[in-house]
Amino acid sequence: MRIRAGVALLAVLVGAVLLLAPMVEAQGDRTLTYAQSVPVTAMDTAGPSIGTVYPAGYEAMYLVYDNLVAFNERMAIVPQLATAWSVSKDGLTWTFKLRRGVVFQDGTPFNADAVVFHITRQIDPTVNPSNRPLWDPIAGARKVDDSTVAITTKQPFGALLNTLAHASGGIVSPAAVRRLGDGFARAPVGAGPYAVERLETGSELALRRFDRYWGGTPGYARVVLRHVPDPTTRIALLQAGQADVINAVPPESVPQLQAAPDVEVIARPALRTFGFAFNLNRPMFQDVRVRQAFSLAINRPAVISAIFKGFATQIDSPLSRLTTGHAAAGQLTYDVSRAKTLLAEAGWKPGPDGVLRRDGAPFDISVLTPVGLFPKDIEVTQAFQDFLRAVGVRASINRVEPAAFWDYLRVPPDRLRWDMALFGFNPSNGDGAYHLASLFESNPSRSEPPKVWNFAWYSNPKVDAWLHQADTTVVPAQRTRLLAQAQRAIWADAPYVWLYAENAIVAKRKAVKDVQVLPIVFTILRNAKP
Fold first, then answer.
1. What is the largest CA-CA distance in the chain?
2. Of 9, 412, 482, 521, whose CB has the highest number of CB atoms within 10 Å?
3. Rounded CA gap, 246 and 225, in Å?
4. pLDDT tens for residues 343-362?
5. Phi then psi for 356, rounded to 5 degrees?
6. Third-level CATH fold of 271-502
7. Phi, psi of 492 (to 5 degrees)
């Protein structure tokens, strides 16, 4: 009882000025308030900003936009703005029948022309440099009639429906894009259940119910997505009634919330896998024995137990076991003695201070980590630092704010200022080929930033070939075999010290119904109701 009273008091102190007055005013309007760990900064489905603050922007986009098809809670594809679809015998043309009578939030009609506009915009890399593995396989789209669209692919593309269900598949109002230009990212217009009322970048997004929504009246008059970076504050706001839903619940706080009579905790195994990426441009990491030694130095069960209280799963592949195309690639073991042996074989010998040396130079590295972007990112990095110290490697930690983190990764290799970096990738279309291609397909140029997220600068021509073949087959069994080969090769090359797949932990007030937590770590509020 004392804990709950203290938490409630904290909520009052923290929220009195910024949060209490708006909530009291909004209760009669049935406002749903979601306290997010990272902020919404932009919501265009195209452009360089998509996905850079993650997952908040995607969660907002799923409220504002509708897609041709969507994921259900089990990540199965279901109709949304398309009511039916078929694929040609050669696998190159997909024909979609469109829902009639739908309008965008600016009152303009949704029709085949809007879909063609959307697809054309997404596949143009000068307009949409992000998420290229999703959109590069598409050749174009053409209008068959007002309610029918044909989408063509350059080669058979087995993950097309996953691409269309991805957050970047949210269909925009062409009229609004033309009218707003670059301002569209902050005032987007879609055909979803909620329309943008106000975006205070990095702080708060306010949405209002779209009364002409084709799917019926949304459950709330308003939805407010509020950036609350501190987890203790998010929990306090939930228990004090100042927030209805919170994300990124710390594992150690789960028992406290489960004991609250008006709170429900939702914990779901997720697709996002974590590890420390090697900067493979560094000479010491071009020896696979060193990379394998780093992996052997990590006690993952201890990390999962002590830091995550069991709310994570050790992985056996670069992919989560729940990701389409997963295949076991090997086991992660903890063996300090073997790690030291491999480092010695690579020429690293202990110095008088216990730090390894080769050719007189100490084994000193910098490890990049965001602060508060990933679950327990600082704690995990500190544990990693301790494990490396035990095998003679001295690691310094470079902490950066979430919004700045991406700028340290997406640069040409000669501008990288770190040796290892904590990273978690979520295949937000649910597909293993997308995950592997995004992180491990060779970058086309060393004078440019990485094509997607291959900031480790990994390259293996065999992996490239298997991923290309997997992308160009629509036969699931064939795709799975090709992806299995790619996973085993990547695992053997060890471009990451792989760790675990997270659990997504969300808490909500029991009075709020139909909150979905997808395995792609998004909290979906579009169907929520009191």
1. 77
2. 521
3. 10
4. 999 999 999 999 999 999 99
5. -65, 150
6. Dipeptide-binding Protein; domain 3 (3.10.105)
7. -65, -35
